[in-house]
Amino acid sequence: MKKIHIPKEEYMVPGNLACAGCGSPIGLRFALKALGEKTVIVIPASCMSIIVGGFPYSAVGVPILHVAFATAACSASGIRASLDMQGDRETTVVAWAGDGGTFDIGIQALSGAAERNDDFIYICSDNEAYMNTGIQRSSATPYLAWTTTTPVGNPKERPKKDIMAIMADHGIPYAATACVAYPEDFIRKLKKAKGIKGTRFIHLLSPCPAGWRIASDEVIRVARLAVETKVFSLYEIQDGEAYTINYQPKGIPVEEYLNTQGRFRHLTGEEMAIIQENVDHQWSRLLKRCEG
Amino acid sequence: MKRVISGNKAVAYGVMLSRVQVISAYPITPQTTIVEELSRFCAEGKMEAKFIKVESEHSAMASIIASSVTGSRSFTATSSHGLAFMHEMLHWAAGARLPIVLVNVNRAMGPGWNIWTDQADSLSQRDTGWIQLYCEDNQEVLDTIIQAFRIAETVNLPVMVVLDAFFLSHTSEVVEIPHQEEVDGFLPRFEPQLRLNPDDPRAYYGMISPNYYMEFRYKMQRTMEETVEVARSVDEKFGHHFGRTHGLIEPYLCEDADVVMVTSGTVTSTSRVVIEQLREDGLKVGLLKMKMFRPFPMKEIKGVLKGVEKVGVIDRNISFGHGGIFAQEIRSTFCNEDQRPMVFGFVMGLGGRDVTPEAVEEAIRYTLDNPSPKEEVIWIDLKR
Q1: Domain B249-379 classified CATH 3.40.50.1910?
Q2: Rounded to 5 degrees, what are φ and ψ at A242?
Q3: Which CATH architecture is the domain A23-291 placed in?
Q4: What is the pLDDT of residues B39-59, one digit of tens each?
Q5: Which of chain A's residues have a Cβ under 8 Å away from the Cβ of B212?
Q6: How many Å separate Cα A244 from the centre of its chain?
Q7: Tell me: domain B2-242, CATH 3.60.20.10, correct?
Q8: Rounded to whole angstroms, how far apart are CA atoms A237 and A243?
Q9: Which of B223, B225, B357, B369 is the most exposed place for a label (fewest CB within 10 A)?
Q10: Closest residue by Cα to residue A76 from A85, A87, A67
Q11: Does residue A49 sit at the B interface (CB-CB below 8 Å)?
Q12: Where are the domains of chain A?
């Protein structure tokens, strides 16, 4: 992967309320470095509502609008319309939502805004469950992962929702995946997104130490393993059609990724083999889409 | 300029003349012609506004909360289930202290589906922190929209302007449409003290602990209390500009009345005619029209009803397990007073059933003839 210059400016200041090791503030820090000070952020109910600080404080140097759970996308639409009316074309509007706020409760508003091609960047910081409320499954939770609502013995038997395919099929100008362990890739994608008009969607994988049952100093290593095992691939989609893989993973066996996390501790060898098959199938599907 | 227009067109003219900058709405009968008309105004360049054609009412309110906090005058319109779907965001708009104006065309709640007038939708939103103003005719609708922005932007609370389905929304009447320059002279540009702005980075509506939350709610209540006077003064100023006022409440023939009927919406017009006829027959009956429901103008109501022996309240709504909502509010207004009227609570006209002059007369005669109500809720024109 090409090394790029990471801006020195800091818009995340010390004192945020994230759990130790959390991937989310790392993601927001890099996002703001990429997008700069002429940015406003919409945050629906999520871990980030807490992380950026409660009244009367803020750990972020750009304006933040906290909004209701289901409204990240339509709130971004409203800000954009209002800035346009005031002649401000320069400010970038960013919605920063979790997987619950994107895959589940916020998908209607997101789909509506994407269909209208409203002009903002939507970042889904995906930690694969409702972590802020204490680890309940969302439709972004992986197949067979433990959560408090999918305890061992009552597993999640459906795969993670393919949010990228859903967003791409809206025909939006730009959609990309990213991972907190690959900041250069993430920053490049944000800068590219900033230069495009319309709805831009970034699906950012961001491990949660508490919910994934990993040590707080393991977050980046585990996030990297998600990519290297092809569990989570780095790619981008232009205009809903042109797929490009941005990073060629090593293709390490998926078992090495699953074994790092307590949420997969209960898996049998047979179940791990099924997950490997699913990952291989998903990868070959992605390759086909890249071929067009 | 005088024109014959429907209540929904009067809404659209009011919104255009108020120079609204962001509209976001989702269609629902009987509000639909409002959004159609506003779309046309935007398409024809009569309005300089962004119109976000959202996928739901929840998103409609959420998006104008965002546009309002970013500094643009913002509007939406809905009805019935649409308003109910917005419920969460109604709390948010009020708590966020945003001067949004919403028009609700009063329509019954399902099931079963019923598109006709009924106050259940708006009165169910009583405790969300919105100012609520109920209109009687199409002129009042247009004028109230313009007043609503001025009130909202003075007190930083949202205003819900309410009109009856079909009886106003789809009925045409003569309406004086003011000139743009006249409205500009009455309603200045929206200049909020704070707005979402990268040059002045602030966090809006973040987590708020028990240390602070209660004081914010206290301030909302204080502002609501002050809103009665603000709205009165806005109406008076409106009168200076346009030669018309509508009042917060409107007493009619109440001075010597033995019985005063309390009404809201179009039932008021019907009741006025009935009362005039009964006066000719020598019956001492008066009328109190309620325009303002939130804040509830208790002092003004006491001023009219104190000393009146019996009050009949006509409710086109019901709070199940208690009774008509206006009747409850009138009762609570007087509960600590030594001198208080006997309150008769009538429920009629639910789900668009016509409130006929005969039905109103029945309620009046019941109030005249009985020393006290025989039932807590008196149902009129009900098939038992």
Answers
A1: no
A2: -85, 100
A3: 3-Layer(aba) Sandwich (3.40)
A4: 999 999 999 999 999 999 999
A5: 55-56
A6: 18
A7: no
A8: 4
A9: B369
A10: A67
A11: yes
A12: 23-291
